[in-house]
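Final report, results section. Input specification for complex C-07:
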Amino acid sequence: MSQCLRERVLWGIYEGEGTAAQQAHLQTCVACRMRHQTLVHTLEEISSSLQETPPPPGRIPRPCPYPVRWQSAVVGLAGLLLLLGGSLWLRQVPPPIQPAMVYREELTPLLEEVDTIVVMTLDADSVESWEVIVDMAALDAALEEE
Amino acid sequence: MHSIRVDQGEFEMLYRTHYARLIRLCCLWLDDPHEAEDVVQEVLLKLLKVSRGPHRPTAWEPWLTRVTRNACHDRRRSGWWKWWRTAPPARVEAVERPSVCRTLEDEALKREWQVRLWQAFQALPARQREVFALRYVEGWSTAAVAEALGLTVGSVKRHLFRAVRHLRQTLGGEA
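Structure output:
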């Protein structure tokens, strides 16, 4: 049994590489002959099966190759960042001002100022116009006398 | 115009002769029939270009095998392919073949053995799969395999024996 052929040699004989001594041993040793026949049978069966066997159906793609805990952690972190960013953005933007407030806070003082100026101007115009009228009457009287 | 017609005929002949063989090889090397279809389409496009060009190979079969093997190699090296291969393999199913004189039990055992064989074959390193497929599925000589893959004969034999030993160990040493 110690002189029995190794598997590599048996395969070499199948490939047509065995020496004369190895071939002779194969003819005399029943165990080696059985092993060789098994090897030949297996290789032939493998060859024919690989020629006949259809390929397996397409692989089912997994959404993400990384472990699920990484996926959930990444999603959670992204959500947290989104919330933080959103809150910061909301703080930076001033609250919307209603139109009534704009009217009260900006338009009212302007109108008051304009009103004051207009009233003052009217008063001044009225005094000058009276003076003008008075002057005109005096002129008319003088012209009539002439 | 005449030369184009001749090339078209030659291309069709090569397509009919080698298409099934190339698909089988790609399935063995890539373990994915859809990817195998894509790769063979690429190879056939190259074949069409080369068959119309001035630099034509002397023998089409080794050329086609070499181009197919390179295309599969490129496909395996791409990043998305590595990602894709991390996905769990789909359930392997053997095709229903009409049984002539086999019993149902024989058919079931045969199918189970084919599934185990396919899984064991796909567990081999890529180089061993290439060598084994060309030697024992395509029936090439060891020297032809070595020439096609750019290896030495000794290297081909080493890969072959390792593949055989692994398959026999996985399959229990008997078919």
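The helical segments of chain B are 2-30, 33-52, 60-77, 79-85, 104-122, 126-137, 142-149, 153-171. Chain B touches chain A at residues 24, 27-28, 31-34, 36, 83-95, 113-114, 117-118, 121, 133, 136-137, 142, 157, 160-161, 164-165, 167-168, 171, 173-175 (CB under 8 Å). This concludes the modelling results for the funded period.
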